[in-house]
Amino acid sequence: MKYNFDEVIDRTNYHSVKWDELETTFGAKDALPMWVADMEFRSPKPVIEAIKKAAEHGIYGYTSRPDSYYQAIIDWMERRHHWKLKKNWLAFSPGVVPALSFIIRAFTQAGDKVVVQPPVYYPFFKVIENNGCHVVNNPLKLSNKKYFMDWEDLEKKVDDPRVRLLILCSPHNPVGRVWQKEELIILGEICLKHNIIVVSDEIHADILFEGHKHIPFATISPAFAHNSITCTAPSKTFNLAGLQTSTIIIPNKKYYKIYKNILDSLALDENNVFGLVALEAAYRYGEEWLEQLLPYLNENLEFLMKYFRERIPKIKVIKPEGTYLIWLDCRQLGLNTRDLNNFMIKKARVALDDGYWFGTEGKGFMRINIACPRSFLEEGLKRIEKAVNSM
Q1: Looking at the chain, which runs of residues are DSSP E strands?
Q2: What is the residue-wise DSSP string for 197-219?
Q3: Which of 250, 285, 320 is where one domain is finished?
Q4: pLDDT tens track, the chain, 391 positions
Q5: Contact partners, residue 294, CB within 8 Å, separation at least 6
Q6: 281 and 369 belong to one structural domain
Q7: Domain finish residue from 242, 261, 285
Q8: Are the beta carbons of 377 and 385 closer than 8 angstroms?
Q9: How far apart are alpha carbons 74 and 57 in whole angstroms?
Q10: How many domains does the chain have?
Q11: Are 237 and 207 in contact (CB under 8 A)?
Q12: Are residues 26 and 148 in the same domain?
């Protein structure tokens, strides 16, 4: 069927963080929300129908995971990413961030250290610190509007016996890099050398722009698979974040058992009934929707890049290779962190993610979400243009 991504859908008063918490977060009800990483699009029709069928059944008791649930995950990963999974590698989590919390609890002790690569998805910092560990920053390097890993700095940082884990963001949020195989090999070898487990957050793996291919970290070699835990979900791909159903892939039997023990100890190893049927329906029947979504997102990206280039040249776009989140370099506006945030909210009336949230390396940057109807995106850009021109 043909999906209409130009449709503008009213999301107010539907318990949306993105829409209904504008005043709480930004102090502005009238700002256009372009911040939280969910889409302004309805999920695929087969997903909606599967949830309706489950709702109409009328009994919402404890759920078990059928073989078809696991097979849907296995088939999707092989079809989209050429990764042949085994059922006994697949564990559950009510979200990727909760999974990171479980993993840190399971594989570290208080005072241990976890490496991240900022500017990076800001919940990483909180989940590390909240579980009694210390953040070790291995900042990405920006060169010619593209970010790269800093191997020399990483080698120095991991030469510390208290460093236990490295959280890899792949594709990277917010800078949009889709890491190449050669980059992942270098990273993986460094971590193997220093006995550091790679926790690979691959939740954005299905959202790729033309010419780019996601490589699951664990597919590179058996050694990397044995030394890694991969976190994924249909939530970003099919706009299902509120159903809190994620898959944690752990080929290492010892690591799998340790993770499962933590999950069991917290009594969190059961699916939400709607999340379960939504995942299976999305992976089985949602591909047609995704194949229509990706060109639309690519057109949105081209529209945004042209708009900034021609009409707001002081703001530079870091062109993403994946995700629907765009990293904007606003440093030429000459505003400090607080003034830049106030400028976007009070002058432009657009709610963006403040770059500083992603680490000090994000100062002077903002993150904008383009998973929205073109008219919505255009309105946001017009507001920014008008504000910049009034400076």
Answers
A1: 32-33, 90-93, 113-116, 134-137, 141-143, 146-148, 163-169, 197-201, 228-232, 246-249, 316-318, 325-329, 350-351, 353-354, 365-369
A2: EEEEE-TTTT-B-TT-----GGG
A3: 285
A4: 999 999 999 999 899 999 999 999 999 989 999 999 999 999 999 999 999 999 999 999 999 999 999 999 999 999 999 999 999 999 999 999 999 999 999 999 999 999 999 999 999 999 999 999 999 999 999 999 999 999 999 999 999 999 999 999 999 999 999 999 999 999 999 999 999 999 999 999 999 999 999 999 999 999 999 999 999 999 999 999 999 999 999 999 999 999 999 999 999 999 999 999 999 999 999 999 999 999 999 999 999 999 999 999 999 999 999 999 999 999 999 999 999 999 999 999 999 999 999 999 999 999 999 999 999 999 999 999 999 999 9
A5: 207, 208, 209
A6: no
A7: 285
A8: no
A9: 27
A10: 2
A11: yes
A12: no
Judge whether 12 lies within some domain.
no
| Contact between residue 120 and residue 173 where contact means Cβ atoms under 8 Å apart | yes
Question: Quick check: 205 and 73 in contact, CB under 8 A?
Answer: no
Alpha-carbon distance 389 to 391, whole Å? 6
Does residue 216 sit in the same domain as residue 186? yes
Counting runs of H as helices and runs of E as strands, what totals does the chain give? 15, 15
Residue 167 lies inside a defined structural domain of this protein:
yes
- Residue 365's domain spans which residues? 17-44+288-389
**What is the crossing angle of helices 273-285 and 45-57, to 10°?**
150
* Conformational region of residue 267, where left means phi above 0, alpha means psi within -120 to 50, and beta covers everything else: left
Nearest to 37 by CA among 137, 122, 148: 122
**Domain assignment present for 351:** yes
Whether 85 and 234 map to the same domain: the answer is yes
Q: Are residues 191 and 332 in the same domain?
A: no
What is residue 305's three-state secondary structure?
Answer: helix
Amino acid in position 260: K
Encoded tokens for 117: 């690569």
Q: What is the CATH number of the domain that holds 86?
A: 3.40.640.10
65, burial (CB in 10 Å: exposed 0-12, middle 13-18, buried 19+): middle
Is 188 found in the same domain as 109?
yes
Regarding whether 276 and 380 lie in a shared domain, the answer is: no
